[in-house]
Write a structure and sequence with these properties.
Chain lengths: 631, 631
Amino acid sequence: MLRIMWGRSNLCTKLLNNFHTKYYDVKVQRTIQTLINGNRIIKQRSFNTQRLDITIEESNQKLCHDKKQLDCSTFTYRTHTCGDLRSEHVGQNVVLCGWVQYARLSKFLLIRDSYGLTQCIVNNTYININDLPLETIVKVVGTVASRPKDMYNHEMATGEIEIIINKLEILNEVSKLPFNLRKYQKPKEQLRLQHRYIDLRFPEMQNVLRQRSKMVHNMRKFLVEEHSFVEVETPTLFCRTPGGAREFVVPTHHSGLFYSLVQSPQQFKQMLMAGGIDRYFQIARCYRDEATRPDRQPEFTQLDIELSFTSLNGIINLIELLLIKTFDGKLPKLPFKRITYMEALESYGTDKPNLRYDLKLKNVSSLFSQSSTDTNFGAFVLPYTSKLVKLTAKYKEKINEIRKKYNVRVVLNENISKEIGHEINEEIKSIIGEENDIILSVGDKKNVCLCLGEIRNVLTAVLELKSLIKINDDLEPFWIVDFPLFEMGEDGLQPCHHPFTAPHPDDLHLLNTDPLKVRSLAYDIVLNGHEIGGGSVRIHNAELQERILKMLNIDSSKLSHFMNALKSGCPPHAGIALGIDRLMAVLCTAESIRDVIAFPKSHDGKDPLSGAPNKISSDDQKYYHIKSTET
Amino acid sequence: MLRIMWGRSNLCTKLLNNFHTKYYDVKVQRTIQTLINGNRIIKQRSFNTQRLDITIEESNQKLCHDKKQLDCSTFTYRTHTCGDLRSEHVGQNVVLCGWVQYARLSKFLLIRDSYGLTQCIVNNTYININDLPLETIVKVVGTVASRPKDMYNHEMATGEIEIIINKLEILNEVSKLPFNLRKYQKPKEQLRLQHRYIDLRFPEMQNVLRQRSKMVHNMRKFLVEEHSFVEVETPTLFCRTPGGAREFVVPTHHSGLFYSLVQSPQQFKQMLMAGGIDRYFQIARCYRDEATRPDRQPEFTQLDIELSFTSLNGIINLIELLLIKTFDGKLPKLPFKRITYMEALESYGTDKPNLRYDLKLKNVSSLFSQSSTDTNFGAFVLPYTSKLVKLTAKYKEKINEIRKKYNVRVVLNENISKEIGHEINEEIKSIIGEENDIILSVGDKKNVCLCLGEIRNVLTAVLELKSLIKINDDLEPFWIVDFPLFEMGEDGLQPCHHPFTAPHPDDLHLLNTDPLKVRSLAYDIVLNGHEIGGGSVRIHNAELQERILKMLNIDSSKLSHFMNALKSGCPPHAGIALGIDRLMAVLCTAESIRDVIAFPKSHDGKDPLSGAPNKISSDDQKYYHIKSTET
């Protein structure tokens, strides 16, 4: 709407700024002409204020609606929120508190809180609203009056009433803000994060934080009230996890000794199983020092669950029910799809595919003679509509970069006959259909798949740009199962999940002879291309755990407490962790997890608000027996 | 019961150990004679097993009862818990999982889980339970059968039935435990903490952790469902709080830069008020490096609350209602008592008095001539029943130590006439009554009170030992209000609460002239001698905040983000934090907060389980740009 107005007249913009309509859409309706001549009208007392009223965000509307059953004003000196009042309140004396949204003509004062907007009217000369700075916090004591019916604002929840001000109190005045709360003039993220306490007033942030609180509360209700889970808080200051991610260290006043900040409550939750807390959960704060990875936070939150006497299916059923109950109506019917790791790799080239569009790899290895002699050999094609005709040089360069990363051969559609031979090209075309072009990759099978998986993302972006692919808006959660237990790392075998994951019982015989072929009882849940959680059946047998640790070259003496817990009569158990930040981000279609966290860090782990991390004093260094070695 | 048996015969003990009746009270009833002759009876097949059944702890009984509305077996391969089965289940095929509580006569297998005990019967020769080590985890597939009516065990929730075992599966076998789970042979705390995963199986720990989970869940329900609060997670990696407690530091890979672990979400919750999250709460993990103070943990949990547009009374009403709703029936009627700080100091010599017994200080300053010239002078007596007659040398020494600490004069009852004069002694006696003896203290008024406050604790212990004082069992929560805003520290004024606490509006005129006389809008809630929470109305005006910081000699530039938040139109607000660990400990009458925490640290901040804190590698030191300076 605003954009249309800008097109018509510069005067509109000026006028709107004068009116301080801020971040809400201005409802123009039939008054566009009035607006263009606004400068004159402003000076007239008879100006029709209703015509300029505010369109409340849908999200706020929802809050107001939810709110009807709730009282958001208990224990405060307001009687109602700015979203509460309706025709039924006419005649009541009320107290409202809120930010000055705009004030004009010495008469109209629009105040806002997190629940809505209310128009207040000055009708005596003692009250002066002329010099009220925007975003000043005020308290209005007044009487609810009905607006004339033709001046109802149906776009505003409180649009049928206004408050006749009896007393106006300035609670906290504002001098100058670093940015305005205009929706279409949102400042850059860095500035918003630096002044997060203002940024949080935007309806999007209000909505996200309130929805997040509700979501987590509903998860708790499901677990505690319907399924007798017990929430147990576990420590975050602990010892280093051998073989895990990089963990922050915390010096203590014991000379030379450090805690590590836990990367997850994994060891604790397994020890709780040994301790008879057989249905455990926790909304747990976790720490990982991964400043270099994009869209990660040094601290994050996970819903952590562990259950005794259960199986892979037990946990999968539990989480499916939990998600369905928490996101009623937003998810497909149960059960969610399950895909094996191998299937995901061979069809999508990734273990967290986005299934919302139809673009699948195809295995054409059998057309190549190497496939009969080299078990690691793979040839896969990625078919796509021939309507795309040609990839531009920019995308070809991108594809080439991906190819280099995986060290495989990639052949674009136009070169296949030339490079691979007409015959094979014909065979491929007969499989995938004439209406499709292809990208072919040949080489180490896993790398070929991963390479085409990344090319698939690039290709989707191109196809979407040209409207040649349909991307489904639905939420499409599914499970990946049958992960390998190990993968080959630089220093030998690495756990694919973590060292406590149980091997698949059907593959135990391969543990010594062909460990890379052993599947595990791990599972991931993937939502629209994001891994939102993962877990596994755990090893409960100390002997087997010892054997796995040895294969992974992990010194089990550093885990003696954990090994002793397994030996003490630890029940068989399994568990999972869901990433709350990521889950919220996907559900709110937020670009970054920063958008669903009240006070996030920037991507280099710095706090834009306080400037943390900071230097510490030499006294602190002495107390903690450390010396900062600046480089 | 067990103790009676020990008195009668050593044989009993031996027998009980043989039967592995573990930590549950043995119900002796009319079978005491049978027991004494047990050795013989054991060898007879006809031994009446019901007579030796187990008394379930009251706490477990409760769990079973609660459980009836709940299903504790969803998503598992057990059909019921060991506390579930009743006569109505007779004939059903069931699957139970649990620890071997005892196994004997090749026939009787008692299995236990966190919900109760169930007796299982072997009635075929294929199943061998003879060599089953205690605490081994087993799965029993069987059929529920009725016990003969005269063999019902009414002390056991499942006492009307037994399970005829069809299949017995050993899920995880135990070799040797570091200690047994016998109630009357509980090992020392250090050993229990070292093997916490076994210690947690004791019914007391099960009860505490499950009650804690319920308590916190009920608090959340009250706040979210009844009063529209929003739970917001705030970061723990932040900048140093100027003027606060000692904070752990966390080195980062940015050379020379450290995070601090937050001691509370104070700054964040106030910034949330500025950001429009006007009804905030969080069950928040907090960190303080106070290894030297007894019964503290380096990390602890608080219920953190902040509310916009409220007052001291608003928060007090909120918390009273929250506690009443959470601990239904355990607390006195509302409203709780309120005592001013001065009243508490002058009547009990502390700001967290225990009101469960009647022992009060009395101000007798007016009897001394100094009181008219020296406003800091105080003379107080602590009256106590003369039936005590005389304090032993041991207690006199204790009192002397306290006296030295506060540098005041203390005169015991027998010396008053001699040291202070007969006349004053008579006057005091006429005030406090002839039936009382007294301890008198004279000197700096505050120190005199604090000194007598500590002596009051010592005296109470003596009086209790001799049954000369009645200590009420009730929970007696009350509020302390009207704290001073400042106290005098070594380097000048210090905040009594924290630097963000609002001064009492009636005392603002004293801020420049007599700051130590200024009261604050802070409040503490005290329960049976423990401070379980505290909070205040905050300063929302940037100018006033600046002035207070200056008086406290705190550099406000280190709080520029916070000051800017106040300037951005921050609503007036107030808040509180309740210590969840302490609250649980008081409610469970636990001796230490360690008893209500799943995995606590020892008092020197060490983790008895893993041995943390530990040395870190030189690679880690290099990565974090620190050098450990061992001394």
